[in-house]
## 1
Amino acid sequence: MTMHSKFITKFSMTTALLALAWPLSAADGDQALLDKAKALFQPLPATAALENSSLTPTRVALGKALFFETRVSNDGRLACATCHNPAYHGADSLALSVGINGKVLPRNAHTVFNTALLVAQHYGGNRVSVEDQAVKALLSPLAYGNTSYEQVEKKLAQLGYQSWFDKAYPGEAKPLSAENWGKAIGAFERTLLTPSPFDKYLKGDTKALSPLAKKGLTTFIDTGCAGCHNGVTVGGQSYQKFGITQDYWKLTGSTEKEIFKGYDKGRFHDTKNEADAFMFKVPQLRNVAATPPYFHDGSVATLPQAVRIMGQLQLGKDLSDEDVNAIVAFLESLTGEVPANFAQVPQLPVAPH
Amino acid sequence: MTMHSKFITKFSMTTALLALAWPLSAADGDQALLDKAKALFQPLPATAALENSSLTPTRVALGKALFFETRVSNDGRLACATCHNPAYHGADSLALSVGINGKVLPRNAHTVFNTALLVAQHYGGNRVSVEDQAVKALLSPLAYGNTSYEQVEKKLAQLGYQSWFDKAYPGEAKPLSAENWGKAIGAFERTLLTPSPFDKYLKGDTKALSPLAKKGLTTFIDTGCAGCHNGVTVGGQSYQKFGITQDYWKLTGSTEKEIFKGYDKGRFHDTKNEADAFMFKVPQLRNVAATPPYFHDGSVATLPQAVRIMGQLQLGKDLSDEDVNAIVAFLESLTGEVPANFAQVPQLPVAPH
């Protein structure tokens, strides 16, 4: 028997054994994992529209223009798109975002994708909806820095947006308003859903995840990550204490901040309730692999490092390199494509002369 | 005869007279104006490629990614696209652009469209080409703020661009280099040409300009504007003194600037030659109607105002409202569409972990 034929024989025998054993057990395992996953996660819906509002094309188009509009901010440079940049999967690649006049914001920017589906906006949850966030950002001294909604409305009229609002909100007493700024931007943001391989998987296509990603999904569930990171957005539906086993900054390297008079205590800064100390909105994990750096202050640069720290801080577990790699492979399956309409920058009106 | 039939008769007679006289004289006038225009202006070429370089798809794609890349700047926020924004026709809508860490730049940003066809880059012409501009911006303390090209190359490698450069510049000893950063961005910028109604007109379609725009073109030529604003980019091919009849700041409202130790004296600040005092590159006028505010310091907000001031400052002429309106209509015919590939923001690499 030559080396070659020996190899062939050995290969064929192995194949034959696999043909008997593997498909059955793999299929069983696949179905069991899929069933487990379906109990914890849901695929993205077709729309994130509010029941009582309609995402008309004119509203979405207006909201998209306003999303990219810098001239409403007080230094003329800040737009929603500054921190939610199509080039960086709807985030900005910075540890901490920067508002008008170079003012550093206290927290890391989330991706805008799928954010309309979250329980609330911001890490502290102090914005009840995407519409609420868009309106309140107008007067935030760190964000758009306007002094009143009247000032905003005057700017929008001067820039030539009156007819845009008239068409988007026909029949209203005052179509051009800060409230409709929020509604229009909200309408646009509600279209920014990013289906991913994991959605295909949840819909029954077990081949949509690689074997490593499935291993990671198993570990993600069995280790306890899915206790908080679950639902349609794999997180983003509840608040949790950050730093269960020890103070988070000991592992993240986070620093004290003047605005918080020390370390960031999350919801506490909004509610002033000690029970909310260190409670943060659990971030959604959709598109997490495409949106470093990590945590509320962007203090951790890479996803494997973030996964390892989460195991230690939240679950008291030292994940092995193998586990971390597998979880990262699963998290990568949550990356969707940047919506084409989001990446296509609109032409903004030239102010009439 | 009723009122109605009287009107019909009168109308028909007028039509009959026009049918005899108007087409002939209008066609004559149209052809004479077109001939005059063709002697002064040229339509955009099909490409702005350098003869000794080729705009390969991989180079253009790399250049486009680098154009939108903020992580190479020293505050992580500045990209070419910051001042050359697709939303504002390749400019930024600001009077003065802003570099890293909120540093205000001394001059207004030109549109990036068709700029590869100009005699040089910047108002002072101190950058010989788009490639030269892109490379030197990397070390400018006001722009990207890097301390060395080595630092830039290290950043680009860490961000995951090595394979992009290897593919775009195969066979070179060092594909990932600051020099090739410039070449790639230059390749992308050389694709950003914006044909306009005026190009159709120059190619013989006399209906591509409205009657008012044609009147404006006549005035533009006869008044003397075309003395400097001529050629393929309707300006941008020479240097001229700004403020022939009087100091420019008396009409523009420009202010003294610390960086210039007084008023901006244009090329003088680069050459230190008194003969260059107040000499500025004549701006191209393609897309001028879409890129307010105006002049080297953005001191004038609207196009009619800018046209009126130019008449006074450069030609000693007080243009009538009628002339200004007509010239503005002509200038509006120089607006082209934003190139689709420019408006589509690319996905940038996530740094490998």
## 2
Amino acid sequence: MTEVRTLKVALLGCGNVGAQVARILIDDAEALAARTGAQLLLSGIAVRNIDSPRDVELPRELFTTDAETLVKDADLVIELMGGIEPARSLIVTAIQNGAGVVTGNKALLAQDGPRLYEEADKAGVQLSYEAAVAGAIPIIRPIRDSLSGDRITRVLGIVNGTTNYILDQMDSTGAQFADALAEAQRLGYAEADPTADIEGHDAAAKAAILASLAFHTRFALENVYCEGITKVSAADIAAAKDAGFVIKLLAIAEKVQNSVHGNGGEGISVRVHPTLLPREHPLAAVRGAFNAVFVEAENAGELMFYGQGAGGTPTASAVLGDLVSAARRLVLGGPARTETTTGHVPALPIAASSTSYYIGLDVADQPGVLAKIAHIFAEHGVSIEIMRQTIHRDAESQAESAELRIITHRASEAALAATVEAVKGLEIINSVTSVLRVEGV
Amino acid sequence: MTEVRTLKVALLGCGNVGAQVARILIDDAEALAARTGAQLLLSGIAVRNIDSPRDVELPRELFTTDAETLVKDADLVIELMGGIEPARSLIVTAIQNGAGVVTGNKALLAQDGPRLYEEADKAGVQLSYEAAVAGAIPIIRPIRDSLSGDRITRVLGIVNGTTNYILDQMDSTGAQFADALAEAQRLGYAEADPTADIEGHDAAAKAAILASLAFHTRFALENVYCEGITKVSAADIAAAKDAGFVIKLLAIAEKVQNSVHGNGGEGISVRVHPTLLPREHPLAAVRGAFNAVFVEAENAGELMFYGQGAGGTPTASAVLGDLVSAARRLVLGGPARTETTTGHVPALPIAASSTSYYIGLDVADQPGVLAKIAHIFAEHGVSIEIMRQTIHRDAESQAESAELRIITHRASEAALAATVEAVKGLEIINSVTSVLRVEGV
């Protein structure tokens, strides 16, 4: 029998995901050795506080507060600390030492991905991050490798389970946003400070990573337009439902005509916002805290990848998949799978993107209202697909008011914004109750 | 500027998929060169008859009937001829010459995959086959690589678009099988001779490939139990619908207790049969000719991969993805990604598998019928989950008959078969109208 090589694995961080990764490394050592051809030895776990309670019981002697020393002695480094520093410096140290790095740190990748990929390229080491987007769902390899002979035109992702849970609750129970959020917090689907989720920041980081992969160009967080779900009302949800739609927070990256830089070429619009989707769209059926990424490619057509987007054990599965690949490379040799960025497509501002829109208006119940509004839309070059008026009568005062719901054909953000401004100026308009983007029509 | 290396690509077969692969190789040469670091030169297309009509107009000088010579001069070989011979011999020749091979030949892989993987391992060349299962859907890399640190427990796949289209039509229109098949043939979703699809043979080949990947053991077609959809009646579909189910032809590979070989270990049940799925199951929403593969893993939980399972252009996307990977390996060096078969889990016969069952019975409308039937189920150790009786009265004769629908808890095939036999022997039973397996409950 040949001697089996041992690879030292340093784990940085022991939260939800880290604890499960440690457990699997210990419990499944034999299976992992069979798959990689090497013994994966968990050489230590760097944490801030050794005495913090953990989800999994782990040998105390594995813990250390000296991450730097642990990293310098490792063949493979798993970074699950989150945040920018010291995660970034430790990853750079690992790369410079020639260690393969596996990370789930979406915030760091969205901010500094380009520089880290470059460092890894230079050092010829593999930097893997399947766990950073959509938890357990295999999405990095399919986009980067399986679709490498195709041209992706659009990616639509439900990549934040907290907001999907909240919107799903609002849709199925009619709850207001604040109540659905409170319920999500009670059940552990939302954190005590839910800002990063409900304001869309978490989804925006993932959008930057997905866009970079799909369009072979390095996009960072500052290229992503971001709008959260805090302004989505129960009335919006009800109106959407009534019209055959569901509201989802989508991370979108799509190829569009570059109308901004005036070179007539293509650009990429990367954005996160609440979006109406037809109920028969495959993403509409993604319920609760699940995630899914919908990809459109020129040849492959429509694809969807679905699964658990968070949680310690599912995310640990993605980390381990990356670790096995990195270990196999160390055992068998061969080049690191680096991030090729052959494209240099510019990121376009939200003003350059175009979608369909849903507009809700509270209008005076007078003859000629529809004609006046339709006229303003036409003036601004925004074509109306559906216009529906509902008359409400107040039970006490018997006063009538009318609600107007409009779905437009694809229009530019700029044209739509100008249209809404002009509509607001009409005397017959009591208020613009909602303006939401629509996909999949 | 450094000289860009040229890689000669031989294409074997120019049907639906082959013609699209040739088109993309020519039209997207620049993008493919940027992704691989090499010029991919389509050096020739081997066909049986040069004058056959093709979907795509291609330079006549590319065509040859001498596949052997073409293969011997190629760096990369794409085999899309289908069938066993001469495809097998040509692939072996390519492997022995050190060429990377990409194939979409599920029948060949299901029959001779083990031998071909071994040949490729020995020669250190890559044998890729993403296009062989579920067309455009990236499924091979996710199962083989992304989930390599996890343990898959079950794979459920809708991997045949023809049968999914037929069952979907029967479900939405109430059509009988024969009419839905005729409609599918008229629309080009089913072939003139639909046997391979409707009898489940095509799905069985894919089941063998999926099972081999998921359980790190080489399974062949003879390990797959196979039952097609020809006996599924409009009445079955209606009854399923009524009970909140949809009927899908599933390719199933799952880990089960090995009750056959008596070593108490695990075995794998690989099978294809019509299956009742709850309407809220993610696979239930897979409509028309689409495909999807649902994967359950110990850590990742439930995952689903969805997309177009057939068609020239979508399948070509999968072929090109494999080709880019194989070309990158030739350019950058490194070991071939061979098929590790670290597991040696035995394939179990259908008798060893267990599922829930749906049983439809036409019974006499007499007191005590339910008790008698329930007694027989209990005697055979088959536990009933739901039992529902519907009374029909014939409009003319006023004679009453009763229909009994039973859904069992998980039971072994053997126990179920014995139960059905015993039930058939009861005087109060007019007929057993259907026995169908149920998943996802």
